[in-house]
């Protein structure tokens, strides 16, 4: 299956589009998660700070008149906030004035004195000490201990984003499968024609040209197919020519031998006649020489006579 994925351009394009979409979604999800966690932290601290400010303002008079019952009634209003597990009010000297603890929880009792003003995290809890000032003077301090549901929020947020990612990837798959046809169809046409040319040696097939960059590839392929067609035609013509010449030579071979034999005999006869003709002119030449020089012949006869020999 992996080799098939590596060979298919269509599958490669789908994987490329899905991978790009997936990476973009992962980056977007990571950015959203970081933003949401930061926003949740800041918003939760701001919410608790506002709650502590309201609670302290409404309890300044109770602290000033040492009315612990009124202070506890103000703290009991926090029951409508399930995330707040414990709270307390300290007087201007830092002594515990009134406290509140949600029923059914095993939260630790409030500390006996305020411990700093900055919010801090304790596992999945957030602790806040907020001073209440009036006319530049600190009148009280409010302590709030609440749930810090960052893990639960992160799990819920990731679940929602996971569903969104799955739906987005499915939509991207459908869209990519529909859009990639415009890219892969010309390539698949070239591939199909190339297979037919290789298997059937049919160089007359052509691919329809497109108007994009693939059109240049189609033109080059069609040109190569035309060159192949002409080359194949030339090879066919050469084979037919060779077959014709071989057949003609086979059919005319006895006649060629008779003609060659006749030509050989004629050459020999002509050579023989030429040799005899050369000898005749030699004898004739001597006769002509004798007739041309009669004095020489008379002198020879004179020497051969008996009287000439004696003298």
Structure description:
This protein is of the alpha+beta class and 311 residues long. It folds into two domains: 2-172, Beta-Lactamase; 180-245. The chain is 69% helix and 12% strand. It has helices spanning 2-7, 9-64, 68-76, 150-179, 181-200, 213-251, 253-292, 294-304, 306-310; strands spanning 84-90, 96-101, 120-122, 125-134, 137-147. Strands 2-1-5-4-3 form a five-stranded antiparallel beta sheet, covered by helices on one side. α2 (9-64) runs antiparallel to α3 (68-76) and α2 (9-64) runs antiparallel to α4 (150-179). It starts with a helix and ends with a helix.
Mean pLDDT: 76
What is the molecular shape? Answer: rod-shaped
CATH architectural grouping of the largest domain? 2-Layer Sandwich
CATH top level label of the largest domain: Alpha Beta
Radius of gyration: 61 Å
Helical segment count: 9
Instruction: Measure the end-to-end span.
Output: 135 Å
SSE string = HHHEEEEEHHHHHH
> Which structural class should the secondary elements be placed in?
alpha+beta
Sheet with most strands: 5 strands, antiparallel
Give the helix level as a range of percent: 55-70%
Regions with little confidence, pLDDT below 50 for 5+ residues: 281-293, 295-301, 307-311
Q: Identify the strand order in the major beta sheet.
A: 2-1-5-4-3
- Strand residue percentage: 5-15%
The strand count comes to 5
Task: Provide key terms for this protein.
311 residues, alpha+beta, Beta-Lactamase, 2 domains, five-stranded antiparallel beta sheet, 9 helices, 12% strand, rod-shaped, disordered C terminus
């Amino acid at each position: 299956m992996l080799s098939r994925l590596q060979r298919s351009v269509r599958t490669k394009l789908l994987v490329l589009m899905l991978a790009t979409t997936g990476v973009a979604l992962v980056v977007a999800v990571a950015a959203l998660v970081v933003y949401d966690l930061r926003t949740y932290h800041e918003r939760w601290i701001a919410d608790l700070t506002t709650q502590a400010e309201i609670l302290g303002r409404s309890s300044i008079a109770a602290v000033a008149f040492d009315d612990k019952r009124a202070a506890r009634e103000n703290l009991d209003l926090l029951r409508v906030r399930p995330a707040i597990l414990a709270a307390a009010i300290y007087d201007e000297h830092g002594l515990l004035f009134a406290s509140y603890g949600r029923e059914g929880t095993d939260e630790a009792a409030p500390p006996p004195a305020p411990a700093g003003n900055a919010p801090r995290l304790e596992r999945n809890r957030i602790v806040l000490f907020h001073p209440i000032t009036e006319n530049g003077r600190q009148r009280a301090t409010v302590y709030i201990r609440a749930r810090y549901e960052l893990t639960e929020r992160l799990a819920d947020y990731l679940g929602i984003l996971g569903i969104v990612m799955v739906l987005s990837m499915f939509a991207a798959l459908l869209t990519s499968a529909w859009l990639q046809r415009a890219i892969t169809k010309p390539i698949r046409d070239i591939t199909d024609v190339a297979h037919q040319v290789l298997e059937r040696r049919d160089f007359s097939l052509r691919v329809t040209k497109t108007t994009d960059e693939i059109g240049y590839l189609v033109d080059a392929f069609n040109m190569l197919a035309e060159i192949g067609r002409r080359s194949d035609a030339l090879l066919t013509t050469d084979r037919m020519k060779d077959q014709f010449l071989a057949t003609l030579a086979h059919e005319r071979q006895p006649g060629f031998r008779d003609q060659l034999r006749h030509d050989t005999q004629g050459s020999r006869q002509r050579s023989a006649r030429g040799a005899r003709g050369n000898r005749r002119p030699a004898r004739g030449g001597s006769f002509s020489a004798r007739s041309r020089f009669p004095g020489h012949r008379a002198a020879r006869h004179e020497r051969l006579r008996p009287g000439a020999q004696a003298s």
